[in-house]
């Protein structure tokens, strides 16, 4: 998962349309990262509601949809492909690299203890794949989760970033109706593909790389943003979407036998990934629409926004904190007493996340963007001087 989507901080070109800042989406990012934290905490302190906590894994899906939405919503006319790539690199890589260095002592050893299943033998070649953010193209868990295990999502994001400028050009010719039709078509195709996997083992075993398999999530987010930039708004308040999400969670986790619910549960569980994708799509659209229309939202509270801004760093370090503690205390017994581990680990992960966010992520990104902007200005000055026969100095 990557929490790297955010509104670019640089000023748009003169005359460009400035889209509203959708701060509620920033606040919403924190809750997605929080869900992933709960999902991984089950490896240290499992609770009796494990099926419910497992749904936190879908925070990754939320971030993929959100990434496509925010990058498209915040796109500015005149931004070159090179500038877009550099800004994305400046946004995600410095924090990733530092988090990787922190993760290596936790997840690697020269002679790993067999009882610590998460510790892998030190392999510089495999680690280099994580440094280059290409580990997510391999299916082997040793490679896929190499380096910082959470960073496989950055391989997926890097793939999305590579395609975004070109997908943006395709969406630019569509109005809101066309963008929405594409989003709905992708959702329908996702359901269809899932049913085809159940019907045909050959289809289910196709070796599709993870970045390709997650592309629809990103494109759906792009379609939502494109439709909203054309004036479309989702006429559903966020609370109705959240109520639908609660109902979906109930169907997915409630196991008591009920004759009327069993057939529904069987179908929903078989296609739960697609239903969660629908939920993520509607939630982002409803929250964004509320902000764009000027509605009130507790997600825009300053602390929600600050937590959302640090959610990328939190995502990068939370597993390292959890497994560091796990190495000392071992897996706790299943039961409600395990909840005592959650507050201190949340605090520890947040402290490390804010240190990474404020000490590396923000300042390094700012410097890298300034260097690039200054480079462009010098290049433009040189070209202007060459055209007019003057001295660029």
Write up what this structure looks like:
With 393 residues, this protein is mostly helical. It has one domain (28-388). 67% of the residues lie in helices and 1% in strands. The chain has 17 helices and two strands. It has helices at residues 23-41, 50-54, 59-73, 81-107, 124-131, 141-144, 152-171, 176-199, 201-204, 210-213, 215-229, 238-253, 262-270, 272-292, 302-309, 311-329, 342-388, and strands spanning 108-109, 120-121. Strands 1-2 form a two-stranded parallel ribbon. Helix 1 packs across helix 15, helix 3 runs parallel beside helix 7 and helix 4 (81-107) packs parallel to helix 16. The longest helix is centred in the C-terminal third of the chain and has 47 residues, at 342-388. It is globular and about 80 Å long. The termini are far apart. Residues 3-18 have low confidence and may be disordered.
> What structural class do the secondary elements suggest?
mainly alpha
Helix content: 55-70%
Strand content: under 5%
Euclidean distance between termini CA atoms: 45 Å
Strand order of the largest sheet: 1-2
Q: SSE order, as H and E? A: HHHHEEHHHHHHHHHHHHH
Largest sheet: 2 strands, parallel
What integer value in Å does the Rg equal?
22 Å
Total count of helical runs of at least 4 residues: 17
Number of domains: 1
Number of strands: 2
Give the overall average pLDDT.
Answer: 90
Shape: globular
Q: Which residue ranges are poorly predicted, with pLDDT under 50 across at least 5 consecutive positions?
A: 3-18
């Amino acid at each position: 998962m990557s929490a790297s989507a955010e509104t670019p901080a640089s000023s748009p070109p003169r005359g460009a349309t400035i889209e509203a800042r959708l701060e509620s989406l920033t606040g919403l990012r924190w809750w997605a990262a929080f869900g992933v934290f709960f999902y991984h905490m089950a490896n240290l302190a499992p609770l009796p509601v494990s099926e419910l906590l497992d749904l936190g894994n879908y925070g990754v899906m939320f971030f993929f949809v959100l990434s496509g939405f925010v990058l498209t919503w915040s796109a500015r006319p005149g931004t070159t492909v090179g500038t877009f790539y550099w800004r994305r690199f400046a946004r995600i890589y410095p924090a990733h690299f530092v988090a990787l260095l922190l993760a290596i002592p936790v997840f690697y050893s020269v002679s790993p203890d067999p009882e610590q299943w998460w510790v892998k033998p030190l392999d510089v070649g495999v680690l280099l794949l994580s440094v280059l953010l290409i580990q997510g193209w391999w299916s082997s868990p040793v490679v896929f989760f190499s380096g910082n295990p959470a960073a496989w999502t950055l391989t997926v994001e890097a793939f999305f970033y590579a395609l975004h400028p070109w997908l943006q050009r395709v969406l630019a010719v569509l109005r809101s109706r066309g963008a929405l039709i594409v989003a709905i078509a992708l959702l329908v195709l996702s359901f269809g593909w899932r049913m085809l996997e159940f019907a045909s083992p050959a289809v289910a075993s196709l070796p599709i790389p993870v970045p390709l398999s997650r592309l629809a999530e990103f494109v759906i987010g792009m379609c939502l943003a494109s439709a909203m930039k054309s004036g479309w708004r989702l006429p559903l308040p966020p609370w109705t979407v959240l109520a639908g999400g609660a109902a979906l969670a109930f169907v997915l986790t409630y196991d008591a036998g009920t004759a009327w619910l069993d057939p529904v549960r069987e179908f929903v569980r078989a296609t739960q990934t697609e239903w969660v994708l629908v939920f993520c799509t509607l939630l982002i659209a409803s929250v964004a629409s509320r902000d764009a229309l000027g509605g009130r939202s507790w997600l825009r509270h300053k602390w929600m926004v600050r937590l959302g801004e640090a959610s990328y760093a939190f995502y990068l370090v939370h597993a390292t904190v959890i497994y560091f503690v796990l190495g000392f205390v071992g897996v706790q017994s299943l039961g409600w007493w395990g909840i005592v581990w959650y507050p201190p680990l949340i605090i520890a992960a947040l402290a490390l996340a804010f240190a990474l966010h404020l000490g590396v992520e923000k300042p390094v990104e700012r410097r890298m963007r300034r260097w690039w902007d200054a480079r462009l200005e010098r290049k433009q000055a040189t070209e202007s001087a060459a055209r007019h026969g003057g001295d660029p100095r």
